[in-house]
Amino acid sequence: MSMPSMNVRHWTRGVRWVRWYLRELTGEAEYDRYCAHHRRRHPGAPLPSRREYEVLRTHHRENHPQSRCC
């Protein structure tokens, strides 16, 4: 394998990692996981929009608090 192709592979891997990290950090990946779960568990039910999901998630966290360190 030539040196330039190795550099491209490393760069591509780095970009993928940064994309994954940012999606996890912003919560975008959480919504995608929720949609996949919702499609499996409730195949005929409509999916909530991202905004509706955020409202549902906020209400759930407010009504079911978990102990936190801070």
From TrEMBL:
A Pfam family this chain is assigned to: Sel_put
Domain of life assignment: Bacteria
Protein name: YbdD/YjiX family protein
Organism field: Streptomyces vastus
